[in-house]
Prior knowledge:
By secondary structure, chain A is an alpha+beta fold. Chain A folds into 4 domains: 16-151; 170-361, no CATH class; 380-611, 3-Layer(aba) Sandwich (Rossmann fold), CATH 3.40.50.720; 617-761, Cytidine Deaminase, domain 2 (3-Layer(aba) Sandwich). Chain A is elongated and about 110 Å long. Chain B has a single domain (4-365), classed as Metallo-beta-lactamase, Chain A. In chain B, strands 7-6-5-4-3-2-1-14-15 form a 9-stranded mixed β-sheet. At the A-B interface, helix 3 of A face strand 12, strand 14 and strand 15 of B.
Amino acid sequence: MSEVSEDEPFFEVGGDRISPDQLGEGLARSLIDFVSGHGGHTAVVEELRRIDGNIDVVVLNMTTCVSQEPKFEVLPEERLAVAFINDEPAIVPLRKDFPLTPHSYGLPVESVLPGSMTICLDDRPWEDAKADYSGAEIIRRVISWFGRVDTGDVDDALQLPHTIFLPAEQTIVMSSKLQAKFCDPAKPPVFLRLKSLGESDKYLVAEAAEIAETSDPTGDAVGAFVGFTLGVRAQNSGAMWHRPQHLGHLRYMLAGGQEDLLDLLRSRLDEILRNPGPDLERLYQFRLLFQFVVFNEGHDNVEPMFLGTEASLGEIGVATGLLFETPRGVGHSYGRCLPIGEIDEELVEGIRLVSANLSFSFEGEVATIYAGNDEEWRAGIGKSVVMLGAGSIGSQCITTLVREGAFEKLTIVDDDIFAPHNLARHVLRGPALGNSKTAMLSDDLRAIRADLCIETISEKISTTQPSETLNEALATSDRILDFTASLGASRTISAISQRSRAISAFFNPAGSSVVVLQEDASKTLDLATLEALYYAEICHNKSLFDHLRPGDQAVVSGGQCRAVTSRIPASRAAILSSIAASELGKVMSSPDPSITIASINADGGTSMHRSIPAIGKMSLDAAGWKICLAGAVARRLQKLREAHLPSETGGILLGVVDHARKRIEVSMGLEAPPDSSGSPSSFERGVQGTIDSIAEARSRTMHQLTYIGEWHSHPRGAQTAPSPTDAAQLVLLREELLAEQRPPVMVIVGDSGTNPISLEVYQ
Amino acid sequence: MTATITSFPIGNADSTRLTLADGQRLLFDFADMGKSDGSDVSFDLLAAIKDDLRADRKPKLSVLCFTHLDRDHCFGAEDSFHWSHSPSRQGEERIKYGELWVPAAAIIETELDCKDAKIVQAEAQHRLIKGEGIKVFSSPKKLEDWLKRRNLTLKSREHCIVHAGEPLDNFTLSGSAKAEFFPHCPLSWTQDDDGEVNRNEHSIVLHVTFREGSRDTKLLLGSDVDSDTLSAIVRSTKRHGNEERLEWDVLKLFHHCSYKALNKDGKEDDPTKPVPDVKWLMEEQGQYRSIIISSSQKIPLPGSKEDNDQPPHRKAANYYKKLQNGRNGTFKVTMDDPKKPIKVKISSSGASFLAAPAVLPASSAAAKPMRAG
């Protein structure tokens, strides 16, 4: 840093004046040529100098183009030094009271460049950026930088959000819990052990420990440290500063008349040494790890920086005048200086500081930030979930969601063992073979996020009723994630009254689509109802006609004909699982129900079909059966009625029949066959094509839809109660369905308003 | 869009374009000096005005104003604009404009020496007789006489007359233009007192207020008036309690940085000492971080051959520079960059320079029509 008289408004550049002829063919010449020929009203070359033997400096008078009310006190004209170090330009404002702004950084104390800071034009490594640079580009970027400083929108789209300190060589990884202890200036110092992370010497993991444990580090520990945060937050408007190299640099670390940070440090050390407790001698041997917390005014955030010493607390105490060394063998190694002595400048400059960035351990909050999510999202999707099924889609989805910061507590439910064929698409690997999927997956997830609380239940929920433990988990969790890909499981879940809201995700048999069904917040549309609506979607939308067609033949995986697995490539399973995870992340924070079908097209692209069914459902109990009609189905029937008014119309009802749970879900009503006859007072459903229509619907839905009864409309003004004709029809239907051992369903559609639909079942 | 003020590098001559918030263009003076014989001006003003209209798909200027009819304010006008009074001077290649604004002197003066000035005058007279498409600034007695000779009355042409101290219709801060024009000069009574036309002193001086967001930014559009006229303007404005109409964030400087605007008898002082009223106008009414634009040649170095009686005057420039330095303002000279105009942008935080087009990659080329054969 150049030294100049305090009276001068500008830093002197120093070095020797040179002529343009002495420049090489690099960027400095390009800049001179551009400004001389085209600088116009924007830039004027004031002088050209060479400092430190080989650094060419172009001094410019720049018109900054800032307005009359800039957000930072930049003047309409500024004198700038553009210094070229190995052709890389550094832009140094020469005005001594140039404001501290984001995207500028302080020059190291030892820098040969004039000024105290440089402005940051480009975040990219120079090797990447230099191809874009010419003299004109430098001027453009400077003008652009000033333009952003003028408006206060300083972060360029191409620049990373600024930080206060330039990145350090090392990074300390710390859990948020430990960091919280560290951060509280009112609390006693933290004793901790630093360990290398794997083979890297760039990352150190901090672990809390008791003083007695930490005093004798062994194994992979780097050392025992006493740590604290300085109780003052330095103000800094966003300029980036070089990190101090030794204890003496603390005095110059932050420009702008801040408090002397070395004094602050000494005060804190004094407090610690004043109340040492029984481990004083051990304390003297500890090294120091302290944190400065800098409040970034421009962005209203706090940025920590860690500084560690290789010197011990005892040595630091001597350098700072707090301690003196005692003769060997006489009590403690050090004695307290009373009163406190002077700081020994030479000694403090000899105490090297190693700076380190802070990296939080990969925990939920941090993962959320990395994923671009926020706490609101995290709370919205539920913090405690029960995951049913730990197969391919489940393991992949849950891994993705956990990486994105989702969940605090996870209960994984599956009774399966990880088998060789599972390696095709599961996240687990060879070492997990033969072990419980839940246990192995649980280890895998903990290895990603140590903060996750995971419980496992070895159980298969399908036709059997859940155990008490599982019931408890289902009732107390925030969400149930059904990855079982089992109709039985989702129908069993629907039948449980005391449980949380469920969401189901599964692949179609061909492995070309993934389906996500979410219940609404009130669980009016439960998974069983959503299943019926999902089939209706398949029948109504041409693009989904082949959705449930069987895919490649399943292969026998376990030597028995029932032990089959699908033939789906891992790449497709990964794509679809990722889509499902993304969809879960989106819809789980919404109170609405949803049906999402995402498909991989023939060309490799993906398409998405999403519907949000209207919440509402009619249901009635009859003959031990429960019959349900979702509002969305009723609406479709209303539309068919309206299209035929004033005449009546009607047709066949298709639905899902669950004999095990004695439940019928009305899925859809077919249109009247062409040979039907309807008048304002009567309707006769025809027969042409009916068998084919039912067969087609069954075929499209893997035979899940079946004939369940009839629907018809009543004319305007008429009630939806069954007429005598309707009652006779019901009797007839009953006869027809006797063989099926289930009641017939009749739906009568009338005027909108109260009771627009009548759901009738033969009693 | 934000309003802009553009002053073109055409030597000791004037042409300033205002682009208002609603996109309409108003051109104050047009002197295409690059087309005059022996000129050292290289800037093609006609092309710049035409290209700008074309780029923004504007069929015409809203207003063409000649502050007065000196050669350095209207050179090349004859061949550049569409003149409704002269069928031989019309055509698609000519620039069209809505209203013509001139001082009363431009109607009544009898001793014009420049052919462009004569064409402007003929057009102005033609429009005034028709009673449409013109604003005449001030109504001295001689204008009334001129109308009488054509069997017209001042009253019948009142809608064409603009009086000092009365904001122009059609431009309001709350309207789409977000601008207000307040004329300060010429003053009718001074013209009556003077008797004969004094072209410089009877020229148009306008104060423009731009509104952007909650901020008003003010421009004083000076012409070639001297310190006497400026003093009269100041006194008259104060008398009417309209001091805010002389506040300025941007000043298009008077008379190409002549000392006469500061103090017509102050040739020797360095820096020039302004007379009291002009001192007030400069020092009290100019705002913090304000901008002065001198439409002139470069400020001469001491002792150079340009350091003579002709503007720009170095000593006057010294006054302005010192004044602006003291309040973090700027003083810019159009000919400091003979290739690019000075462009000022009006935003909700006031006036600021717009980086010249060449500072953006190839934008200058992109803004011009290109042909290939």
